[in-house]
Write a structure and sequence with these properties.
two-stranded antiparallel ribbon, about 190 residues, Four Helix Bundle (Hemerythrin (Met), subunit A)
Length: about 190
């Protein structure tokens, strides 16, 4: 849910921490072979999905953290809400929700290394989620609808902090769901 008031941040924090635990449990339960298994060459492995999340989250967190620091330094207006977010951001966040209604073409810069190891993907995701949690905590009290940042992939798009947090969490939910779908296939190692 895109935060409408500062009290909504507690839910975002809980979800970010929960996703971190969920990914650690999923990857921790898989062998290295299972974590790298792909149903075909065009699909990603479980570790690949998590490596993709690291690529996306790392790219977005740079501009998010910069926007937060700029707002704090500039003494941007403080607000506990209600926040107003761009409608395109709300649509974009909703489009990320699982189960995927359609597969999205991924830009080359967002495609993970097919050989990304389970340990590397898990550790990198843990660090990236730590940054996300810190950013959400640092943004508390800022007007999450007015403080904006540019998309690192499509610079014409500007998102509010609140919608950015929700997009990252929704994107994580989508790929965690896709990993679970992959693990449920009949050919998955150990199934």
């Amino acid at each position: 849910m895109i935060p409408r008031t500062s009290s909504d941040l507690d839910g975002l924090l809980a979800e970010a921490k929960g996703q971190n635990v969920e990914v650690a449990e999923i990857l921790g339960a898989l062998s290295d072979e299972a974590a790298l298994w792909r149903s075909d060459e065009a699909r990603w492995s479980a570790a690949g999905h998590i490596a993709h999340l690291v690529i996306i989250n790392t790219a977005y967190l740079g501009p998010v953290e910069s926007a937060i620091e700029a707002a704090v330094t500039a003494g941007a207006p403080r607000s506990d809400g209600p926040y107003r977010h761009p409608s395109v951001a709300s649509w974009f966040a909703r489009s990320m929700e699982p189960p995927p209604k359609r597969r999205m073409k991924t830009f080359r810069a967002m495609v993970p290394d097919p050989g990304a190891s389970r340990a590397e993907a898990s550790g990198d995701f843990d660090r990236t989620q730590g940054r996300l949690v810190a950013a959400i905590e640092r943004a508390r009290g800022l007007d999450l609808g007015r403080v904006r940042f540019r998309s690192p992939f499509l610079s014409l798009l500007r998102f509010s902090l609140g919608s950015g947090f929700e997009m990252l969490l929704a994107h994580n939910r989508r790929h965690i769901w896709l990993v679970r779908e992959l693990m449920a296939t009949a050919d998955f190692p150990g199934s």
